[in-house]
Amino acid sequence: MAMIDGPRLAPKSGTAKQLVVLLHGLGADGSDLIELGQQWREWLPDAAFVAPHAPDPCSNVPMGREWFPLTLTDPREFWRGVTYAAPGLEAFLDRELARHALPASRLALVGFSQGAMMALHVGLRRQIAPAAILGYSGLLVLEDGKGPESLKPAAGAVPPILLIHGDRDDVVPVEMFLFSKAALGAAEIPCQWHLSAGLGHGIDEEGLKQGGFFLTQAFGLPSPVRI
Q1: Is the Cα torsion angle 218, 108, 111, 50 positive or negative in sign?
Q2: pLDDT tens-digit series, residues 101-116
Q3: What's this model's pTM, rounded to 2 decimal places?
Q4: How does residue 1 score in pLDDT terms, banded at 50, 70 and 90?
Q5: Could you give phi then psi for residue 178, rounded to 5 degrees?
Q6: Any idea what the CATH number is for the domain that residue 146 is in?
Q7: Less packed terminus of the chain by CB within 10 Å, N or C?
């Protein structure tokens, strides 16, 4: 697997006190999500943003990237995929934290679709829990043949989690959101959530606001007045 990298946004204040890593969906690349950093910079002036390109070319979208192949024909491909991509992402997170001389506790993971699968998988298994996990239009992937009891965060402590989904999503159906929310609850992992009415597979203005509020709270910052 190739070493991953992607576009960055320096903190607006000039000094990084937090790191927000944005993980794109299947067939996109890091340039697709770095715009979220532009939207949240006013609320998170001390945050450095980075949106790594997934390691592999996407088999279905020639110009896009993928964290792992996804055909939706084999239920085992989800677990196989997240465990395949996790080591490379873990190494990237450690390098980025070192780049900014930040402790692992000042990391937030934000993912969309397949990127949300990666954020949840890796974020719940970090040796030091991240400050937050924010998943848009994603899925909590459980180990093959196991239930929510298999979710034992490596750090012992669990990070704040917010799941946001559109109720008209025809790519990652809303049933996957409901499953993820229920699985986290069964594992006694607290989870906040927001369901965007009328939204398909995407991020709307309300989801953007909810995500920004959540990150400021997770980092212990003052609640923003507007976005």
Answers
A1: positive
A2: 999 999 999 999 999 9
A3: 0.95
A4: low
A5: -65, -40
A6: 3.40.50.1820
A7: N
